[in-house]
Every structure is written in structure tokens, then in C-alpha cells.
Amino acid sequence: SESYSWRLLAMVVCTNHMLKGFVAGGGDEGLVGKPIEFLLGDLNVSAGRMQMLKAAAIAPWALKPVIALLSDALPIMGYKKMPYVVITTVMGFV
Q1: How many CB atoms lie within 10 A of CB 80?
Q2: In terms of pTM, does the model score above 0.85?
Q3: 8 A C-beta contact, residue 58 and residue 24
Q4: Residues 70 and 91 sit within 8 Å (Cβ to Cβ)
Q5: DSSP secondary structure letter of residue 84
Q6: Helix, strand or coil for residue 88?
């Protein structure tokens, strides 16, 4: 039988949720949110601009399910994930 054990699936779910909680979520916006606010505050970034920058930084996490559905529904040259990984990597460098 080609199935995954419940321990592996539980570990993947727990680590995924814990990492997202520590890094991007939590009561004070996780490990990323508050330090970024202090750093941008030291650079005299306005509150509105800071909100826009934080939204842009969190956008990939928010769009992850949409991108997954898109890549599964519209394969490029027979590949479902790899072309989208390459496209987003190139866009990240630009």
C-alpha cells in the first residue's frame, strides 16, 4: 500500500502550523512583525507606508492556496509546479 503513516502526516501538519504561527502569526504578529515595525520606525517610515510594506511581505502566504489551485488547473508544458516556481523566482529577482 502506498500511504503515509499518521505520524508523518501529524508531524507535517504540526510543523507547518507552528512555523506559520511563530513567523507570520501569533498575538504580536509573530517573530517577523514586531522587529520589522521597530526597524522601519527607526528609518522614519510612515505608518501607512509600513502597512503597505507588511502587506506586500505577507502576500505570498495569503496567495499560496490560489497559486496552488492555479498551478494544478493550468499546467505549463505538462508540468504543474516547476514552471510556476521558476516564474516566481525570476519575479523575485526582478
Answers
A1: 14
A2: no
A3: yes
A4: no
A5: H
A6: helix
